[in-house]
Amino acid sequence: MALVVHKYGGTSMGSIDRIKNVARRVAKWHDAGYQVVVVPSAMAGETNRLIGLAREIMPEPDQRELDMVTSTGEQVSIGLLSMALLQLGKEAVSFTGWQVPVKTDTSHTKARIQSIDEARIRENLDKGKIVIIAGFQGISDAGNITTLGRGGSDTSAVAMAAALKAAECLIYTDVDGVYTTDPRVVTDAKRLKKITFEEMLEMASLGSKVLQTRSVELAGNYHVPTRVLSSLTDPDIPLEEESRSGTLITFEEENTDMEQTVISGIAFSRDEAKITVLGVPDRPGVAFQILGAIADANIEVDMIIQNQSVGGKTDFTFTVPRPDYNRAMDLLNNQVKAEVGATDIIGDAKVSKVSAIGIGMRSHVGVASRMFGTLFEEGINILMISTSEIKISVIIDEKYMELAVRALHKAFELEKM
Amino acid sequence: MALVVHKYGGTSMGSIDRIKNVARRVAKWHDAGYQVVVVPSAMAGETNRLIGLAREIMPEPDQRELDMVTSTGEQVSIGLLSMALLQLGKEAVSFTGWQVPVKTDTSHTKARIQSIDEARIRENLDKGKIVIIAGFQGISDAGNITTLGRGGSDTSAVAMAAALKAAECLIYTDVDGVYTTDPRVVTDAKRLKKITFEEMLEMASLGSKVLQTRSVELAGNYHVPTRVLSSLTDPDIPLEEESRSGTLITFEEENTDMEQTVISGIAFSRDEAKITVLGVPDRPGVAFQILGAIADANIEVDMIIQNQSVGGKTDFTFTVPRPDYNRAMDLLNNQVKAEVGATDIIGDAKVSKVSAIGIGMRSHVGVASRMFGTLFEEGINILMISTSEIKISVIIDEKYMELAVRALHKAFELEKM
Predict the structure, then answer these.
(1) Taking an 8 Å Cβ-Cβ cutoff, which residues of chain B contact chain A?
(2) Which of A81, A123, A83 is nearest to A99 (CA)?
(3) Domain B265-416, what architecture?
(4) Can you give the pTM of this predicted structure?
(5) What is the ipTM of this complex?
């Protein structure tokens, strides 16, 4: 009997009626003969409410005690969902993270899963029960409750699917899959039926909010077939139809398409800022001096470019999230500039990043030239370029972002997907 | 170093500001050199909110899953209170019931505590930490979360104090102690500085809402000195003053007063109803036939009186809570009357119970006659009488209830306490 793991996000669990819909959907899979493990998130807004209470008491909440408080959101969800299934006449039982147990390290509020004991889950599945597991949480060796951080329920679900060697991990969410780009920008964006995990990883880290990056990594490491699909459809649609909907994350070696798609999607991130440190002496340790100071201030750095030096001096350019731009500039001007002996610091807080992603790019020359040519034809100046094996990202003026996304979507014929 | 257990009710934990006040009060005790274990309830209204969610999904919620849901209320409280103490610069740590562990039987929603492992608590107290324990909850042998039922946090606190052999268990609540009677009925009602546990037990079971009956029994069985006092005073009042406030529950053998008070208080319960089954054949099993049917319908029976039979027939009278009166009458008329061969069923849903309670009554004759005489002087007819070693209860017409309470309070000179 095939085993599947279902994960439902906070919106899907957001009201009593929605919880009842989740139960109907789960029951449908169980009726069809599947063993089903369900990982629900806290009801929408609940985690924020609990964090709000904590911050009113302790502006920088103690991390262990914060986990004690926030882990209750998922605990309420599993009990309610279990009741909704029992009310439908199904046998169901819920377990918290510590009851499984889901063992994690001791990093409160951002713990990593170390192991999942499947015995108690298997025992109940074998009795014909639907098993509901609290996502987002675990227990440390010292017996403290830990949480996995924001979006951790995705990670819990994929880890659960890996531990149980599930046939598929279905991530039910408020979108119906992964698109070639944001449909709000390109109206004829298409839903991808499949995406490789490497592409999904780039999509996730480039700002697509569909899946948490860590859960995609985990799916890749353990080869968990993971499907992103909508929880907002009628829960009673035929299972045949539902099980083919959404977007399935696959693994390259399984992909036997003769005609490998070159580009799978155009991702973008509007709120970027770029900073250039000019006239830096080209000696060892300079990059560390500049970026170390930025990292110490908890500012994330994304693209980094250093040009060939001329006359022993070079320019060093990188991007930061726009909200951190002013803080980064102050830090560089007041501290780093003198330390590294730079001639000037210049920046631009109105830039955006546009990326073309595709596993097929590995074996196809000409993707970069088609991308740059398209932008040239539209009169868009490229300010920075960064490439990986399956991705090309450019930084451009913010005002051209939508234009660039639409032009690239068309140039790579993504509307025909 | 003396160890004390503090218990705070839902009202005391009802808002962020109140939680901060609780923390200041606890910190004051810790500053004075006490080891402090704190058992807070869920924030006021939270348990009802959670039960409401459950009932929307499952009108008669599965008991195991309901415990999963409702136990989160106290878990949030302990985390927040721990943070409030940490914010004050105190070392504090919180534990759920299963983390202690507090072992219970498997009766979900009304579990009984079987044992408390004190090791983890002691270890943290010995490190100088304030230890916060979730009340109302425990864990069964099978590893399921259980709850102790309404008011269970009182029971948790007293059990904790017993296990840790605490010097005192302080129950902080929204009243400032136990009174000779309800001050809303008798304006010169006096707060009792002490009350024996037997008297407190009668008070609790007679409707005084100050302490849950089970927690009083537990205090009695384990001789836990338990004090009921107000959480609404300024948290910074001198500890000397606070530690003498409220009402201390004592044990008879410790009571060395030469002049034992005869009566400690007048308790009352307005919403009673009495039912008489007339002309019942006086044969074995009849009482069981009548009361068994009532008990099967989950109706609680309080006072029971059966008169001497005359001519092989007797009358059987008992009281039930007024909200159950109609249901009980229907049951008796439609089912029991024919079964037992009674001639008629009569009832009165407008009666109240008034009780005089006092451990001193054991050694003083004349308490009953003074009570009945006082009621006679006021022209109040006594409908039923029931006595125990330390209590005399009468059922009277509801409209005389306040008059009876005031007259008895004065007759036993309770205003001079």
Answers:
(1) 16, 19-20, 50, 53-54, 56-58, 61-62, 64-66, 68-69, 71-72, 75-76, 78-80, 82-84, 86-87, 93-94, 96, 98-99, 143-145
(2) A123
(3) 2-Layer Sandwich (3.30)
(4) 0.84
(5) 0.82
